[in-house]
Each structure stands twice: as C-alpha cells, then as structure tokens.
Amino acid sequence: MSRITKIAILVAAIAVAGCDAGPIAPAPVVDQCMRAELFQSCMKSLPAGPVATQYNDWDEVVDSCGSAAYYQALRQREHIKPECQP
Asked: Do 47 and 81 form a contact (C-beta atoms < 8 A)?
C-alpha cells in the first residue's frame, strides 16, 4: 500500500470516529451586566493619568478595559439573567 493510501485511510478513520463525539456545546454569549461591572472596575483601578500627552494613550487604555471585560463576561446563555442577555 502506498503512503498516500495509508494517509487517506487514516484520515477517513479519524473522520468517521469523530462523528459520535456527541453534541457540541452552544457558543458562549456576553453577560452585559457583568461586562459593564468589569469595565467600570477596570477604569476605576487605573491611576490618574497625565494632564497633557503627545499621544492618545487613554484610547488604548479604554480599548484594553473594554476587551478584557468582553472576554471575561462570556458565559453560557443559561447562566445569564434574561435582562443581561444581548
């Protein structure tokens, strides 16, 4: 048997074996209430910034807090209160 045939058989066997892997969990959604709390907590924990800067560093800080809050607030839908669901 050629090497390509062996690889093809192996790939087919893996594909068939993976069919009985069970149900896939639903994708997490963002808990908007938790996201708001995390964002506000992040912003409050920052030290006082400079009064004048050459660059808009605060834009990066706000983006970083927003991104961190988003990913930390990901939950399964059944664990989120209805008023906090998107």
From this structure: no
- Give 18's contacts (C-beta < 8 A, 6+ positions apart): none
Q: pTM to 2 decimals?
A: 0.62
pLDDT in tens, 6-63: 777 777 766 666 555 567 778 889 999 999 999 999 999 888 766 666 666 778 888 9
DSSP secondary structure of the chain: --HHHHHHHHHHHHHHHGGGS-PPPPPPEE-HHHHHHHHHHHHHTSPP--SS-SS-HHHHHHHHHHHHHHHHTEE-GGGS-GGG--
Say if CB 80 and CB 26 are below 8 A apart.
no
